[in-house]
Amino acid sequence: MRNELWEQHRGKCIGAAAGVFLGFIYLIWGFWDMLIFAFIVAVGVYIGGKLDRKESILPFEDIWRYLTQKWRMFR
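Now predict its structure.
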């Protein structure tokens, strides 16, 4: 089962592990650590899921298209 999980969801596993690692590092220093820890883990799982689906992490084309359309009215 563990091998199957690794083969099908490698990006999510790596993202979650990186999130947990960075979250534990952050837990050493502050009060709102639980919320930040959960956010870091969620971001890791999100990025890992994107990598599993072979999608880009940030949709630069969509962002650029949105910004150019948004600022076009000022020209």
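The chain has four helices and no strands.
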